[in-house]
Amino acid sequence: MNKLKGLNNASLLFAFAMVFTSFGSVFYVSEAGAHGERNQEPFLRMRTLHWYDVEFKHADGRPFIDGEELKVNEEFVMTGKVRFFGRWPRQLPPPELVYLNAASPGPVFVKKETWLNGKPAIQSSPAVLGRDYDFKVVLVARVPGKHHIHPMINVKDASGLVGPGIWTNVTGSWEDFTYPVKTLTGQEVEDLDVYGLEGVRNWTLLWVGVALFWLLWWFRKPLIIPRGLLVKAKRESSLVTATDKKVAIFLLAGIVFVVIFGAKVTSEKYPRTIPLQAGIAEIDPLPLAEESVKTDVKSATYYLPGRTVKVSFEVTNNSSQAVRLGEFSSANLRFIDKSFSRAIESVTDNYPEEYIPKNGLLVNDRIWIHPGETQLVSIEATDAAWEVERLSSFMHDPDSTFGALLIFYSDENERYVSELYGPIVPTFQD
Prior knowledge:
Strand content: 25-35%
Helix content: 10-25%
Keywords: Membrane, Monooxygenase, Oxidoreductase, Transmembrane, Transmembrane helix
Distance between the termini: 83 Å
Organism: Methylococcaceae bacterium ET-SHO
GO molecular function, one term: monooxygenase activity
Protein name: Methane monooxygenase protein B1
Structural class: alpha+beta
Number of helices: 7
């Protein structure tokens, strides 16, 4: 008997140790950083979504400066356009269902509004490859701290694909955050952040109490090893007593009663409810612009020692105006031809510097391509950003190809966006 008691005590200590270990892992929270998108494969960032005309603003339209302070409860707005790349990777599911979102280190902001092409993007919607969408995301600052915020589109079965981000410095106190809303029935909710929290807490405590009672009821008896010895001795009938059965029946009846009673009270308190909407929104892409400037890649290399992407391609100008290349954009990096004032003017003063490589874009043939002409253009995009953003690892991909957007400007202040796609070969010799 003493041996059984000793084994029972050891089992109890082991069980409680496991419980406390589990609780410890639940309450431990590590600090989240930024730039998790760098862990995504290069083909995900170069051949899926291309973001352009992205702007970060205050609620009143003022430009938001990288790292600027934002008080709790203040709004933060992201706008721009996104191109679903026409040469979508074959190893990824097509964007048959997408959802406009925001990428942040946890729920530090509240997503207040999302818009695609001027329509509310509350639900998921299909997207069309090779087409552009105008987006707008309105967030409300919730948790103080430095947070890196991106626009993001979740693609079904293909993960979240993020655009360029910006640092926000949220100040104030979390306790001051409120999110007032007005329901369809006219009810004024002072703070949606804690709405119904008391009921959630009470129900959680109730079921945790029931679970703990049930566990402790059996913990008071010999546990794993003693019970195993009794089963081995063919005395298992003594493990469950008549009192145990009565308690189980009483507990089961009580749970059924509480569930039925709770459902009745909830229905009376909330007579009008709308289920979560599982429908799909149909949002048409922006009108398809005529492909006035066509490109055809002839060669592309990545010079590893120099961290340089070199591309030669033919440009055919089918427009009625002369055009000149001003920008090479890929994986949120914007290589700007700094000798071209029109391209420089396209970069807003508050655009995050980390996405504008300092060396810019070197266009070997800085020429205007006249209507109807086809010219061979060679470019060099040299910067450590290829390594910092971990984009050079595309040389390890079984499908070593790249994707980018080329921004052309006409002599009459028009702009043309063209896709650039082709295989790329790594090289160690200049």
